[in-house]
Structures are given as structure tokens and as C-alpha cells.
């Protein structure tokens, strides 16, 4: 089914052959979960090129593909492709320029008597809309994250370090059945919560801290991505206003979500709320991104993104404010686009939680 759709797109663009080198695109189209392979697609044939380490695995995972075991010491990837294409009516090959090293591109130029051209991001566009199995995995990953957060929050206490809290959260994610973490957990406190992607450190929680938690689980390769911000103890009036501003921006964007709206439009709606507040100078850039096999997938919803949302896309909605010396707030949900709107995948509470201290 996926190969059929890819070939239809290739035909529309007059692609004779396509070489895929990005591991997640290879996994999506072939099922191969190893770390070293290339995928060669023509109008009639599909080759999974790997080496002796992964041949047996590829034969098990990649039904319908010709598995080619390349001797890396005796044959370059370009020479291997040239041999495969020699009997076929192919004189042009499209490449994933964004996923090629200069060294590999130079080698392919040297070894292939073909015209090499860049391809559009066909696989990434296909990956944006999820099938029922993908949605099931994403729901499970989001559910694990929800449960892990609900377990963790009562454990947070004065004097605990960011690193200790992050370790507890990550252990719980695994205990709940995750295959892997979606990404290294971001857990920051106090003024450090103003670092959008900071790493947990040895800072100890203090009364009145913002605590920002950005984390997720992975199921069969599919990732959840959620952020919640809480206060340890009593929130100040400014903290409450700061938080409510982000909450209002997210709610405004969510209210506008529907098929056909662009990432640019949604970003603008959220930014209008942030810009009308006293905290406009501290607004983060961009509203969200697709999520699936990769943490940040097509489309990237920010200013200038003209991609229209479609049913079955899974994206994040995550406005944020980051004020140096004061702290940061981000509220992030995973949503799936439906025919008439959206459905939340992340279900953890979003009203400001003030934890006992």
C-alpha cells in the first residue's frame, strides 16, 4: 500500500528511480528496523541494500523486497546501485539530498553513469498522515506518558534535584511498558525553566518553583511528546498570569484546528494571544510540529508554513513563554486531526497545578 502510493507520487513527478537513505523513511516504507541500509525504488522493483550484519533481519522484516547483501569492502554503494539498475530503463536517479553526506554524494556521482537529482520529501509527506496501527502506537505512547506524569507529580518535593526527578520519570515510563524514551527528558526548575530545551541538572527544587517537564514514550518506534508546567508550592500572581497567558494561547490555537488550516495560520492565532499580553517579548518561536517515527516531523508549524493540516495527521500544539531570570511555561499536547477538528492524545490536566511543598 505504501509502495503503491509512493510510486504514484513518483510517476506524477516523472521519477524513474528513487534512492532513500534516511533510516526512518526506510523503516516506514520497508519495515526494516536496522541501522544500515538503503532503499532503491523503481517503477517495478524495490531493493533493500544492506550488509551481512542485517541480511537475515531484512529478510524477516521486509516482505516483498529484493534483499541485496553488499560486501562493503569490495563494492561501493554506487557500484551496487549501478549493477542493479543496469538491466532497467533508468537514466535518472532521485536522491534525498537532505539526508546525504557530501562524501556519499561524491561517491555516487563518481560511480553512477546516471543523472542525479534531488527528490522532494515524498516519504516525509506520506508519513505525516497516520494509519490505524500508527495511531494505536501513538495513543499507547501518549497514555504511558500521562500515567507516568500522574505518578511522578506527588513524588516531587523540596530539595529534590532536577536530575533525580527526571530519573524517576524515565524509570516509570519504562515500567509502564515503553520500548524506549521518545527523547531525553527535559525537566527544569525555577529560573532554569526558561531554557526551552535545557538538560536536567543538579539544581534543587525550591518553594514556588516553576517545574517544566517535557518528555514522552516510544512504542514500536512511534513517539509521544508532552509538556506540562507546574508550581511547587503556592504560585505567585505573576506566575498565574504568565501561565494563563500560555494556556489561553494554546486554547485559541486548538479551537481553530481543522483540516485545511495551515501551520502558519495556527501559529499566528497563538502568537496573537501571546503578543497581546505583557509577556510578548518572551514568546517562543513556532507552535508545533508533526510527530511519529521522528520527534519533529513534517509539517513544522511556524511562521511561513503553508502546509494544510489533513485528517490523520498527528501534530503537537505547544506555545511557550520563556523569561530569563523568572522562568518558563510550555503546555504541549499531541493531537490527531479528524474530519471536523481534532482529538487529544495527551490527556493530562492543563490547568495550573500547585503541588504541596
Automatic annotation (TrEMBL):
Q: Which positions fall inside the Creatinase N-terminal domain?
A: 2-129
* Domain Peptidase M24: start-end pairs: 136-338
Name this polypeptide is given = Xaa-Pro peptidase family protein
The organism is Rheinheimera muenzenbergensis
Amino acid at each position: 500500500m505504501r509502495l503503491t502510493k509512493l510510486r504514484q507520487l513518483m510517476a506524477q513527478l516523472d521519477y524513474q528511480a528513487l534512492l532513500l537513505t534516511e533510516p526512518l523513511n526506510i523503516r516506514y516504507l520497508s519495515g526494516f528496523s536496522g541501522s544500515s541500509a538503503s532503499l532503491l525504488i523503481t517503477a517495478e522493483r524495490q531493493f533493500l541494500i544492506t550488509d551481512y550484519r542485517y541480511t537475515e533481519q531484512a529478510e524477516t522484516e521486509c516482505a516483498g523486497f529484493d534483499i541485496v547483501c553488499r560486501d562493503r569492502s569490495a563494492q561501493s554503494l554506487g557500484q551496487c546501485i549501478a549493477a542493479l539498475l543496469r538491466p532497467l530503463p533508468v537514466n535518472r536517479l532521485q536522491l534525498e539530498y537532505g539526508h546525504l553526506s557530501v562524501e556519499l554524494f561524491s561517491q555516487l556521482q563518481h560511480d553512477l553513469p546516471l543523472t542525479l537529482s534531488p527528490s522532494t520529501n515524498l516519504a516525509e509527506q506520506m508519513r505525516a498522515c497516520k494509519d490505524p496501527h500508527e495511531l494505536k502506537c501513538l495513543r499507547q505512547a501518549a497514555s504511558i506518558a500521562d500515567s507516568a506524569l500522574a505518578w511522578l507529580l506527588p513524588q516531587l518535593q523540596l530539595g529534590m534535584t532536577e536530575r533525580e526527578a527526571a530519573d524517576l520519570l524515565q524509570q516509570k515510563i519504562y515500567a509502564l511498558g515503553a520500548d524506549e524514551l521518545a527523547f531525553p527528558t527535559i525537566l527544569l526548575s525555577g529560573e532554569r525553566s526558561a531554557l526551552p530545551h535545557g538538560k536536567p541538572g543538579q539544581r534543587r527544587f525550591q518553594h514556588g518553583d516553576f517545574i517544566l517537564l517535557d518528555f514522552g514514550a516510544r512504542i514500536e518506534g512511534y513517539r509521544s511528546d508532552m509538556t506540562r508546567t507546574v508550581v511547587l508550592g503556592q504560585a505567585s500572581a505573576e506566575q498565574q498570569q504568565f501561565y494563563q497567558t500560555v494556556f489561553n494561547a494554546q486554547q485559541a490555537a486548538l479551537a481553530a484546528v481543522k483540516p485545511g488550516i495551515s501551520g502558519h495560520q495556527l501559529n499566528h492565532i497563538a502568537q496573537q494571544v501571546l503578543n497581546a499580553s505583557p509577556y510578548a517579548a518572551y514568546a517562543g518561536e513556532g507552535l508545533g510540529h508533526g510527530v511519529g517515527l521522528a520527534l519533529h516531523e513534517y509539517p513544522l508549524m511556524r511562521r511561513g508554513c503553508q502546509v494544510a493540516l489533513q485528517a490523520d495527521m498527528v501534530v503537537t500544539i505547544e506555545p511557550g513563554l520563556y523569561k530569563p531570570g523568572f522562568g518558563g511555561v510550555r503546555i504541549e499536547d499531541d493531537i490527531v486531526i479528524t474530519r471536523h477538528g481534532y482529538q487529544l492524545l495527551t490527556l493530562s490536566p492543563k490547568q495550573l497545578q500547585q503541588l504541596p511543598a
